[in-house]
Amino acid sequence: MKSPITRKITLIIVLISFGSILISGLFINYSLNRQFQKYLTRVDTARENQVINILAQIYLDNGGWPQQPTLLGMGRDFYLERLFYITDTDGNVVFYTRMGRIRSNQRPDLLKPRPIIIGEKTIGTAYFGKSPIENVLTQQNVLFRHTINHSIVLSILVTGSISFIVAILFARRFSNPIRAMNLTAKAMTNGNLDTRVRDLPRDELGQLGESLNTLADSLKYVQALRQQMTANVAHDLRTPLATIQSHLEGMIDDVIPVSTANLESLLDEVKRLSGLVEDLQEIALADQAIHHFKYEPIALEEFLQILINKKTPLFAEKGLHLLFKSTGPVQLVSDRKSLSKIMDNLLSNAHKYTAPGGHVTITLSHTTEKVHIEVTDTGIGISEVDLPYIFERFYRTDQSRNRESGGFGLGLTIVKELVEALGGTITVRSQPGQGSTFTINFATTPNQRNNPS
Ligand code: ADP
After folding, report:
1. What one-character-per-residue DSSP string does 422-435 give?
2. Are 387 and 439 contained in the same domain?
3. Which of 134, 262, 303, 339 is the most buried (most CB within 10 A)?
4. How confident is the model at residue 27, as a pLDDT?
5. Are both 415 and 309 inside the same structural domain?
6. Which protein residue's CA is at the shortest distance from atom 7 of ligand 1?
7. Which of 365, 340, 350 minimizes the C-alpha distance to 415?
8. How far apart are CA 341 and CA 320, in angstroms?
9. Running DSSP on this structure, what letter comes out for residue 282?
10. Where is the domain boundary, 285, 320, 339?
C-alpha cells in the first residue's frame, strides 16, 4: 500500500467494521444475558408455583395445617431445595424443610415469601431461599457468556480479515483514478498537455477526470491559438514594417525622393499598423469585456439613426447608399460602447467589400422576446467555403487578401465575441457576387422594451 489515500481508506473501513462488530457483539451479549436472566426467573417462579400448589393440596387433604411445626418430607424430584418453611396466616411456622433446618439462621428478610391461596382465601405463606440450583444456573450463565464472547471474538477476527481484504480492493478502486488524475495534473503543470486520464469510473470521480481531460483539451487549444496568433501577428507586421524600412532607407540614401506622395504612402502603412494594434487590443478587451460592460437602457432606433447619420458622408464618398429601415422604437438593456463597436465593424466591412453604387441597409425589427439588427450589403459576398470561418481570428478570404483595403481578419472576431458576451447571437447569409447579411439577435423582456403604440 504505497498510496497514503489507499492506506487511509483501508484503515477507516477496517476500523469501522471492527467497531461495528464490537458494538453489536456487546449489544448481543447484553441482551442475551438479560433474556437468560428472565428465563431463570421464569423457571424459578414456575417451580415455586408447583410447590405452592402441592402445599395447598396438603392443606386441603389434611383439613388444615399441623398444630406443631412439622418437617416436610418430600420426594427428590420435588423442588425442596429452595423451600425453607411455611407459616399459617398468624405467622406461626407449620412446616419446615430440611433446608430450613440446615439454614435456620438465614435472615428472614432475605427469603422470598409467596402466599398460598385456595380460591380467594390466603391460607399461609411459603418462604423460599436462594437454591443451590440457582448457583448451578449462574455457572451455566457464565459458561453461556463465555461462549458468546468467544463467538464474538471469532467473528471479529473473521470479519476483520474479510473487511481488510475488501477494504484494500475498494480503496485501490477508489484511489487509482485519483492517482491517475494527480499524475495528469502534474504532467499538465510541467507543460505536457497530451496526457489524459483513462479508464474512468462512472461516478463523480469519473466526471472530475473528464473535466480534467476537457481542461487539458482547452489548454491545448488555447496554446495552439496563442502560437497561431503570434505567428499571424508577426506575419502581418512584417510586410508593412518591411515597406516602411525600405522606403525610409531609400529616402536616407536619396534613392527615393522625400515627396508628399511617398510620405503619405508611408503614413498609410503606419495607419495599417495602428489598425492592427487597435484590433489586437480590442480582442484582448473583448475577452474580458463582460467585466467592463456598463448596462443601460438604449433606445435602439434612435441609437442606430444617429450612427447612420454619422456614417453617411463616408459611404457617400465611395458612392454607396446607406439606408435605415425600422419597425418602430425598441429599447434594449445593453452596453452602448460595445454596440457601437459591433455596428462600426459590420459597417466598415460592408463599406470595404461593396463596390460604388451599391446599397448598405440596416434593418431594425423586434418581437416580444427578441430584437433583430440586420446589416445587408450588395457587395462581393462570401463563398460557401469561407463562410464557416469568417468569425475566426485572422481569417481572411482570398478576395480580401488580394485587396489593399483588406483588414487583418480580426473585425468579425471582435463582433462575435462582443455580441456573445452581451448575451446575443450573430449569423451570416451570403451569396458571392450578390451581397451579405449579418443578423444579430438580442433577447429582450417586456419591461425592457417600449411597445410602439
Ligand atoms: P477584415 O478586417 O479582414 O475585414 P473581418 O474579421 O472583419 O476581417 O472579416 C473576415 C473576412 O470576412 C474578411 O476578410 C472578408 O473576406 C470577409 N467579410 C467580412 N465582411 C464581409 C462583407 N460584408 N462582404 C464580403 N466579405 C466580408
Report:
1. TT-EEEEEEETTTE
2. yes
3. 339
4. 85
5. yes
6. 411
7. 340
8. 21
9. H
10. 285
Question: Residue 430 C-alpha to ligand 1 middle, in angstroms?
Answer: 12
Position 325 scores a pLDDT of: 97
93-96 and 70-71 strand pairing: parallel
Ligand 1, atom nearest to 377 Cα: 23
CA–CA distances in Å: residue 52 to residues 57, 91, 129, 258: 9, 17, 14, 142
Residues 412 and 306 in one domain: yes
Domain count, the chain: 3
Closest atom of ligand 1 relative to the 396 alpha carbon:
14
Decide which of 157, 192, 227 is a domain's last residue. Answer: 192
Tens digit of pLDDT for each residue in 383-393? Answer: 999 999 999 88
Residues paired with residue 299 on neighbouring β-strands, in sequence order: 331
Judgement on whether residues 276 and 388 belong to the same structural domain of the protein: no
Residue 350 CA: nearest ligand 1 atom is: 23
SS3 326: strand
Do residues 107 and 155 both lie within one domain?
A: yes
Which residues of the chain, if any, have pLDDT below 50?
Answer: 77, 403, 446-453
Output the CA 172–ligand 1 centroid distance in Å. Answer: 56
Residue nearest to atom 8 of ligand 1 (CA): 409
Distance from the alpha carbon of residue 351 to the mean position of ligand 1, in angstroms:
10
Residues 6+ apart with CB under 8 A from 119: none
Write the DSSP assignment of 10-61 as a string of letters.
HHHHHHHHHHHHHHHHHHHHHHHHHHHHHHHHHHHHHHHHHHHHHHHHHHHH
Residue 348: the pLDDT is 94
Distance CA 45, CA 37 (A): 12
CATH assignment of the domain containing 263: 1.10.287.130
* Closest ligand 1 atom, residue 414 Cα: 6
Task: Report CA(264)–ligand 1 centroid distance (Å).
Answer: 25
- State which ligand 1 atom lies nearest to the alpha carbon of 380: 25
Q: Which residues line ligand 1 (CB under 6 A)?
A: 349-350, 353, 377, 379-382, 390, 395-397, 399-400, 406-413, 436
Q: 355 lies in which domain range? A: 291-443
CA of 395 to the centre of ligand 1 (A): 8
- For position 406, what pLDDT does the model report? 59
* Residues 300, 273 share a domain: no
User: Do residues 278 and 296 both lie within one domain?
Assistant: no
**Residue ID of nearest Cα to ligand 1 atom 13:** 396
